[in-house]
Write the structure tokens for this entry.
Amino acid sequence: MTTPLVSITGLSAVSLREGGSPILRDVSLTLQRGEVRGLVGESGAGKSTIAKALLGILPRTVKVTAGEIRFEGRDLLTMPERELRAIMGSEIALIPQDPQTALNPGRRIEAQLTDGLRLRRGMNARDARERALQLLEEVHIRDPERVLRAYPHELSGGMRQRVMIAAAFSLEPKLVVADEPTTALDVTVQKQILRLIRGMQEAHGTAVIFVTHDLGVVAKICDSVTLLYGGKVIEQGPTASVLAAPRHAYTRALIAAGPRYDRPDAGLEPVPQSVFDQLQAELAQPFSSEMSHG
Amino acid sequence: MSEIATSAPRAAAKQKGHRTVMGAILTDPKVIIAGGFILLLVILAIFAPYIAPKDPLEQDLMLGTLPPVNGSGYEPGYYLGTDDLGRDVLSRLIYGTRIALTVAFVAAGLAALFGTVLGLIAGWYGGWPDAVISRLVEIWMAFPPVLLSILLVAVLGSGVHSVIAAIVIIDWTRFCRVIRAETMGQAKLDYVTAARTMGYPKLRILIREILPNVAPVLVALISLEMGIAVIVEAILSFVGLSVSSDTPTWGGMIAQGRQIIYQGWWVLTFPLIALFATVLAFNQLGDGLRRALDPVLQR
Amino acid sequence: MAEPLLQAKGIEVTYGNRRRGGVKVLHGIDLSLDRGETIGIVGESGSGKTTLGRALLRLVDVSAGEIRFAGQDITHLDDGAMRPYRKRMQMIFQDPMASLNPRHTIGQILGDPLRFHGLARSGADADQRIRRMLDRVGLPSIVLGRNPHELSGGQRQRVGIARAALLEPEFVLADEIVSGLDVSTQAQVLNLLKGLCRDLGLAMAFISHDLSVIRAVCDRVTVMRNGRVEEEGACAEVFAAPKSDYTRLLLDAIPLPEVDAGWLKGPEAA
């Protein structure tokens, strides 16, 4: 077995703002090269905190108390600032939730897409522009010349998200962290963006951490899934196995709570109080009670 | 209901802390220090005759330009020294709070009243009232404020009433602009739509729903305006356009001290410090109150 | 009862100044809703579904068409003339935080409308009604003294529902009311709303971008696109056999929680 691309072991963190309350509890997960992993959970589950930790952008109010995050064997948490900066953007890249605010409104797309290529890959302006055009074509933008000249506000939400995906893959990273990248989009656009992320990921052999609250999205794009609650891993394993044969009562309850257009009489079942009681009891235990699938 | 169960401890924690608005105000150190200082000034102003060690108007040329405590030639009882006419600086400073605070409270209060009423109308009703009020504000703001105030007082005649009138006439636009924008912002929120779906009359929505949400900004503005009013009064006193010269004012003292700065630096310095501290206190109080009064920022 | 409770005929809404060429966001919408019936209004951003909802409640003015409520033409009533209708048609909002006045307590938020419309015989009567309603929506009565920001998202949305239901309306408009909630909370809130509609005989227009939610809650559905109705019909029929290509596209785009390798490679969305 080869070394995994990412291996998180025993990661715990507390929020300094809320009197040291835990926001990650003994989280462990491994990600192989080229794997798409869903991090899923309801609000407060800790899924974004893990994503931020991977990107080295944890807010100052969050303190890691234990554990390590190894990226190709090197611990990101103890790495000197210089080395970390060399990795971020170049080997680990982000697709943000809101492409509206992630793009600088005052700069043209060309400037924003070529920055990384010129600064991190040492390309000259003409080569960087060529590469940017290729990338835009790769994310199925029909008129890349026009888009390069455009300012962000001249593009639709779906177009902006395509630009963000092009930017994320521009430096051929080994890992892309996608933080709820389709939450703000209409369903038809969401489908296109999911297809695009999956296509880019397959073409480049990139691993993806896909943060979402939607089990449906997980089912369609992720090879494997990690379900979190209250900062703790509840269940993880291959997507097909977790969704088809969930082992934890909470996983089962979450699947039953979501309405489905194809089965009007199923769905909308509130998560029973007994499940929340069980979760609270498990959160209080120091050791992991995770349900993992082979 | 899990959400109730999980939010209960947080609510309980809040019970212990500042549940009430007063509680929130009284736990903010900024508000306590700045508010305490202003309260002290109010007490000094009201009880000036009992607190001031000397008569602020009593001249004694034998005691002219005496230095404050620890200076060579210090005369016991004249803690902050005397001016060139032998008047006690500390007593004049204490009496000076009367004019400063009167102008601060009355001018800021009236400017707030006019500006807020017009701002609420413009922001909520829109249409032609907004067009008229907004044009008026724009024209008003084209005048340079200090020159306009000097001009106004020159026309109205000197005296504390004129100073107040000048400040109100010039500064109502500050309130009007901010309150208009704030009202328009609040009007877009769904709690206002909810009030409309209840069938409440427009005026009721403005007063019962919107005004309380505009209040924190208003309070902060009033406090800032009080600081500004103190400065404007000092400027007008400095150029001799405020009250008659036999009433002690900080601006008047600064004007007088400027002339004898090489003989007695203290005559200029102490009223300047008083002015500076007062304006700073009003600004800090405004900022602190705005935070304390905002129910969402409280956390 | 032959006449529908709420009926819209050919309504158009234009934003901006019409003489200087405003933007028309609704192009002649017809819609009718019987007593006790629930209709889903679905569409993507820019479809005009939110504007349609607000036009039905006379919160935005229509530039053409007619809105009738309980047989009366309410299209051009002024604020005063609308007042008696206000308590009969209520609204629940998308963002419960923004729709509850942050400076009022939950007690005021629920009590003011009752007093304003003279629905309670006395203070004690109002109090009793409010407590019964809190119980109905599953909130403890201690919330009455709290401000909205002290409640969780799900609790706030229950307050929004209680406020609308307290006036015992005949029609309620629910605008994307669960889009900000977690799945587990969403199921509770939707079940509560369904129960209330059934118990009170409420007619409801339920606006959502989520066809799965609409399927779970509504009797009929109207699919909107670019300010026009694409398809309209009973949920059972529309979902089983959509007539419009657009409806089919929307359905195909919904990711169901089942692994399906073909889904991402399915027909390209427009």
